[in-house]
Design goal:
mainly beta; globular; Immunoglobulin-like; five-stranded mixed sheet; four-stranded mixed sheet
Length: 245
């Protein structure tokens, strides 16, 4: 092995070590000592009636739609599961610390809706708010543990970039120009979270072995918690079932 190849190998090993989380004693976690939590968010009972959103107050918003638009809060998937459920590790990580990624999380304004409707981000990680709409939006982030902010964004304006300094589950976001526009942000101190989609499933990967409290938050049907034990290299299951309140 020549000197250049050896140097590249050392740099790669060092980078892998830096990216691993620290445990309570400042040691790097082994990459093979991790497990996964998977589950399904089901819904029981009659689906809520969701009235069609009227966007007539803004002709641009109305013209952007391809058909009827309904609120995302309270939606139920066709297979009887729930989208937009924020699932996260509420407790069990003890003193493990995780650096915030330098890559940003994007909240888009598209066809006069927030995309995604529910998102997760780590403390210190950049949040970028962008708009694809040819109309003015007003982003009102209504935080309680973090700084609230309320900023207008004109068509074609550059992205707005902000950071959160404290964990907070959840932060509501609305548009003061378009009252039907809503989003929710889950701010955590670790990367172990997920949001259910069109199939109502989630997966939280690369969890160190241990016993955790997994919480599932919804904007409409409340929050539930489960105790889960994660083994190295194994997949644990945490299914949740919500019903109309």
């Amino acid at each position: 092995m020549n000197r250049r190849t050896f140097g590249a190998l050392i740099a790669t090993v060092s980078l892998i070590a830096i990216l691993r989380p620290l445990d309570g004693r400042g040691r790097r976690a082994r990459p093979d000592a991790a497990g996964t939590v998977k589950g399904t968010i089901s819904f029981q009972g009659a689906k809520p009636h969701l009235p069609e959103i009227n966007m007539a107050q803004d002709k641009v918003c109305a013209s952007e739609q391809n058909g009827p638009v309904y609120p995302q809060d309270g939606q139920v998937n066709g297979n009887g599961t729930l989208p937009n459920v924020f699932v996260y590790v509420k407790s069990g990580l003890d003193n493990k610390t995780y650096p915030a990624p330098s890559t940003s999380v994007t909240l888009d304004q598209r066809r006069c809706e927030y995309v995604p409707h529910v998102l997760g981000i780590m403390v210190g990680q950049p949040l970028q708010v962008v708009s694809e709409d040819p109309t003015t939006h007003n982003i009102h982030v209504m935080a309680k543990e973090n700084r609230s902010w309320n900023v207008s964004q004109q068509p074609g304006a550059p992205a707005l970039t902000e950071h959160f300094t404290h964990p907070e589950i959840m932060i509501a976001v609305k548009c003061n120009e378009h009252p039907w526009m809503k989003a929710y942000i889950g701010v955590t101190t670790n990367p172990f979270y997920a949001v259910s989609g069109d199939e109502g499933t989630f997966a939280i990967q690369n969890l160190p072995p241990g016993r955790y409290t997994i919480a599932a938050w919804t904007a409409t049907f409340g929050t539930q918690e489960q105790q889960v034990t994660v083994e190295a290299g194994e997949t644990a299951t945490a299914n949740f079932a919500f019903e109309s309140r």
